[in-house]
Design goal:
Topoisomerase, domain 3, about 30% helix, Topoisomerase II, domain 5, alpha+beta, Gyrase A, domain 2, 4-stranded antiparallel β-sheet, 4-stranded mixed β-sheet, elongated
Amino acid sequence: MEDTSNITQKIPVSIQDELRNSYLDYAMSVIIGRAIPDVRDGLKPVHRRILYSMHEQKIGPSGAHKKCARVVGDVLGKYHPHGDASVYDALVRMAQTFSLRYPLIDGQGNFGSVDGDFPAAMRYTESRLSRIATDLLSDIDKETVDFTPNYDDSELEPTVLPAKFPQLLVNGSGGIAVGMATNIPPHNLTEIIDATLLLIRNPDATLEELMVHVKGPDFPTGGLIYGKSGIEQAYRTGRGQIVMRGRCIVEKTMKGDREQIVINEIPYQVNKARLVAKIAETMKEKRIEGIAEVRDESDREGMRIVVELKKDVFPQVVQNQLYRLTDLQSTFGVINLSIAGGRPAVLSLKETLAHFIEHRREVVTRRSRFELRQAEAQRELVEGLGMATSDIDRIVETIRRSSDPEEARERLQQLALRGLGEFLRRAGRPEDECQEADARGDYFLSDRQAKAILEMRLSRLTGLEREKLAREYGALAEEIARLSAILGDLATLMGVIVAELEDVKERYGDERRTEIVPTEAEIQMEDLIQEEDMVVTISHLGYVKRTPVTTYRAQRRGGKGTLGMEAREEDWVNQLFVASTHSYVFFFSDKGKVYVKKVYEIPLAARNAKGRAIVNFVGMEPGEKIAAITPVSGIEAGFFVVTLTRRGQIKKTALDEYENFRDKGIIGVRIEEDDQLLSAAITDGSREFLIATRKGMSIRFPEDQVRPTGRATMGVKGIELEENDEVVGLCVTGDGRDRVLAVCERGYGKRTPLDEFRKQSRGGKGVILIDASERNGPVVGVATVSPADQIMLVTDRGQTLRTKASEIRETGRNAQGVRLMNVDEGERVVAIEAFAEAEEAMTTAVPPPPADASVVGAVEAPGADVTDGNSSDDGVTE
């Protein structure tokens, strides 16, 4: 017969199926056995093995520290068949006060630092269990958890620890498995236990009720959490984004003339040394220009990173830039993934606490069963010994008649003893129980009782020992009753869990370290921009730019001015205004659309630069031009947008109707074909309007004569124009400025008291504003001013002049005025703007324009005080 014992049968297997099955096995091994914590005790296998090994070696908080190499070796040899680095790294992290909110290892030696320094080698460091770690291991020897064979079946290890508190949430966890990851932040133990107690007492508690106790994560490094929406989402779904910030304070430097930002707490898991290096890098690359120096002054007393600022730098702006450009603000992505029921699952806050409560319920039940068995067994022995001491003569006689211990044991079991009731009375048991024992009659010893009697010392026969046995029996009876009640009533069992949780909170609870700020931490671009006044200029051909007000040094009236925009021969500045960098700017097009931008978004340029084309900056449609521009400090209810056209049509619309603006613009005003939008302004509904025309006429009327209408309306007539006349300006009165400034093309102008312009009804011809004579030229602009205001004049050749309103002489309505600016032949003033500014800012000198700048006319040098020799009373007519 043919031998077929060595013939191997080949079975074809699909490579796809084999790879799928093998990879799934590998993935589950990594997920369950290495990278993901168990929801019950919050530990990964390596951490659990370290703690259990130290417990077995009795390296506890009351004993001496032991070498970490000894712990790692025991873990490797018995439970964890992987590299020693993985075990030591896990041990080190459990000892780091900046990694765990409540460290589980009490380390001695160099265990690394928040700067990212590596710990010393395991042969140099020592460790022992912390006190709170013992509460994870408490009752592990009372059959509270299951044990499983280790990797070589030579030892047993626990599958989970009893864990008296929700370790998963208290200390958090992080890990990357195959196809999934977990990232759970640490929390305050007091808050977590309070929420657990609430859920025990009210299993139907809502997330909102739980969050009354659990405010949010509590990081060991402190810091701030900005916004609650990410916290709520993480607690509700198991996933969320939490914005963390370092804690900063602003101090004066030792010299006292500067300020410095001091960082004393940083976001969780941020490397301090890298943070300092990043701040220095942004300073060197001038991404943050307000920093003079950065240094780390941290010591054993605490963290202190000093960011010294340059002079006159606003600290909040630099702080916001640090938040945006460095890890001083970072995001913690919560993924509450853990092993629940043997499978990975993303759990909500309530589900996580519910799994822990169920774990504690099982642990206390198993512990109570174990203790009940132990108590009942001990009570049996004490009862037998008590009976023996009650009838000691017969016991001794029986033993003496026996030939060997085995025979003595058998004879003792056959011996009928009496007096159980009397023993129970000595033990303090209830009388009905004692009477029941008396009625039962003879008492026979069990095998265990007989052995205990044979091993009993003669000293136990004394009266004192007999009373001691009785007391022990009474205590055991009460303990058995207590344990039976726990096992027989769920409310009693949950009461035990509550008491143990409250005990843990009492011993380890502390205050929060991380402050939660309700405001969301979305840093807007304006938070990174220092608020300051800017001069915004718009040229005839549609170029826009902004320049700091301080660039223009104040001069006396009649001066030549400084070079403003470097205009081409066919281009000139025709509009300018002063606004904060954080203000809005409404761009009204000739088609009646509105485009909204922030002042800081307007390109910053030098005085003599032409700026950027508005059509590219705003994003208008082809053929569309900007007709009016107005700054808006903020979009609020109760304010109105007023628009005025060249033909005198005036319209008023509530400001909040422009709130939902879009990049492509929204409808702002309806314009007739033969008309053109001139200007726009913001009012509060209680002002007066003064409209000026090119031929020197004006009209003043109350704002309430213009009723509010929608954005897509045309408005009503503001002034009746003469033939070939047109509107050149709109003043909104009522802001404390009681003088009317009128400026003509040839650089002449005057101030006139507002009271000289009597109030009229809307739609009339008005009264004379200024004599628009041949010397003066047509009126180009009008503004209401106060003596403290500054005046900016711009010519079509790019010359600008800034002077004080108080230097302009007051005259009547019919006067021609005085020379405000010396303009060359063929040059004309095209725009004016009045604004208030601090005196020190007005006198700031600026460097001259480049030598190759192509300008017409002289340019003022720094420090010069250029005036016209005839400017004092030139051209004044009374």
